[in-house]
Amino acid sequence: DHTDRTTFAGVRQLPAGSFMVLNLRDWQSSAGKAGAQALRIERWYEVKPASYSSREAVDMLPELMASAVSLRLRADVPVGSCLSGG
Questions:
Q1: If I label 4, which of 27, 52, 78, 84 is the partner at 20 to 30 A Cα–Cα?
Q2: pLDDT tens for residues 21-70?
Q3: Which stretch of DSSP H or E encloses residue 52?
Q4: Taking 80 as the threshold, does the pLDDT of residue 80 lie above it?
Q5: Rounded distance, CA 4 to CA 74, Å?
Q6: What pTM was estimated for this model as a whole?
Q7: Are 32 and 26 in contact, with CB atoms under 8 Å apart?
C-alpha cells in the first residue's frame, strides 16, 4: 500500500493519516468533475521524531505501558481478558 492505487477502476485510496474534504458547491458547479477546489486531502497528524535518547525511551517504557493498559481498562462493568499464544 505505498501508492493510491486500488483494485477498482476509478477508485483511489487516501494516504495513511489523511482525510478528504469535498466542497459540494464546487463539486456541483464543475458538473460532478472533481476539480482542485472541490476535493482537498489533508493530513490529520504528523509523526515527529523523538526528543529523547534510546536509554530514556527504555526507562519510560514500563510506566507508559502501565498507563496505556490502565486507560483501556476503565469500565463501568467487570473486565475480562483472554490471551492467545497462537
A1: 27
A2: 988 877 766 555 555 577 889 998 888 888 889 999 999 999 999 999 88
A3: none
A4: no
A5: 38
A6: 0.45
A7: no
- What residues have CB less than 8 Å from 45, skipping those under 6 apart? 17
What CA–CA distance (Å, rounded) separates 51 from 63?
18
Q: Residue 43 gets which letter from DSSP? A: E
Query: In whole angstroms, what is the distance from residue 22 CA to residue 34 CA?
Result: 9
Q: What pLDDT shows up at residue 35?
A: 57
Whether the CB-CB separation of 31 and 6 falls below 8 Å is answered with no
Q: Count other C-beta atoms under 10 Å from residue 39's C-beta.
A: 13
Q: Cα(81)–Cα(83) distance, rounded to whole angstroms?
A: 7
